[in-house]
Amino acid sequence: MIAGGHGKIGRRLATLLAARGDVVIGVVRNPDHVPDLSRAGAEAVVCDMEATTPDELAVHLVGADAVVFAAGAGPGSGVARKDTVDRAAAVLLADAAERAGVATYLLVSSMGVEQVAGGATPEGVDEVFVAYLRAKLAAEEDLLGRSGLGTTVLRPGRLTDDPGTGLVTLAPRTGYGAVPRDDVAAVLVALLDRPAPATVLELVSGATPVADAVAAVSPGAPG
Ligand SMILES: NC(=O)c1ccc[n+]([C@@H]2O[C@H](COP(=O)([O-])OP(=O)(O)OC[C@H]3O[C@@H](n4cnc5c(N)ncnc54)[C@H](OP(=O)(O)O)[C@@H]3O)[C@@H](O)[C@H]2O)c1
Fold it and tell me: pTM score > 0.70 for this model?
């Protein structure tokens, strides 16, 4: 299940997974987005994640192998929705996943969240962006604190719509940079096959093929 199934990363991920035969369910809040997911080969659940319960979502998760949180309040949103989407909806998905017995959670977070660690307020940063970083960090901390859910946190750098190159740098610390959404989706697919539970990984464009980059961070996982 992909939360944010109609988002720019979510749609790319749904298309890749469906093309290789996986059963994909995308969570969308706008019914008009359902046909796009059908065209990508995915099923859709229409659900506003700011107005549902873990039990309601868990019904759709029975038998699922993994959940991916690729939702986000988006660039036009304010402080309040950073909390209700980027933090609370990610936590709600974790609650639902645990209830349904889902083993694997991939969280699309963001590079830079360490700037607000321990309640710090970085100087010269717009208050909405600070709220965004706080929401992402709080979601990470909530998920990584759960023993029943194997969470991999992916912190991409600046996202672009450039064509993917298939070449990335994926590591606990990469340094700042950009990365095409195509390559983020490819890394998510590879992490679904080889999760790196309890790991926080930054992602930018680089020189390592995606499969090799993921194998290097999840050496114990079946290849
Ligand atoms: N932009 C960057 O440079 C950057 C860098 C690092 C990480 N990220 C993160 O990467 C993630 C994915 O990025 P993206 O560009 O693919 O995002 P996106 O295109 O904005 O997609 C976000 C999706 O979340 C959905 N959503 C919002 N509120 C929802 C709700 N209440 N219930 C259900 N779905 C809801 C949106 O649906 P609607 O279409 O209905 O609004 C949209 O489809 C985000 O978490 C973002 O913060 C971004």
Answer: yes
How many angstroms separate the alpha carbon of residue 72 from the centre of ligand 1? Answer: 3
- The tens-digit pLDDT sequence of the chain (223 residues) is 999 999 999 999 999 999 999 999 999 999 999 999 999 999 999 999 999 999 999 999 999 999 999 999 999 999 999 999 999 999 999 999 999 999 999 999 999 999 999 999 999 999 999 999 999 999 999 999 999 999 999 999 999 999 999 999 999 999 999 999 999 999 999 999 999 999 999 999 999 999 999 999 997 766 5
Residue 210 CA to residue 220 CA, distance in Å, equals 17
Does 108 contact ligand 1 (Cβ within 6 A)? Answer: yes
Count Cβ atoms below 10 Å from residue 69 Cβ, excluding itself: 31
Instruction: Out of 1, 6, 67, give the residue to mutate to test ligand 1, the one with the largest number of ligand atoms within 8 Å of its CB.
Output: 6
Structure tokens at 58: 């868990």
d(CA 186, CA 90) in angstroms, rounded, equals: 21
Q: Is there an atom of ligand 1 within 6 Å of 107 CB?
A: no
Q: Which atom of ligand 1 is nearest to the CA of 159?
A: 3
Query: How close is the Cα of 46 to the center of ligand 1, in Å?
Result: 15
7 Cα distance to chain centroid:
11
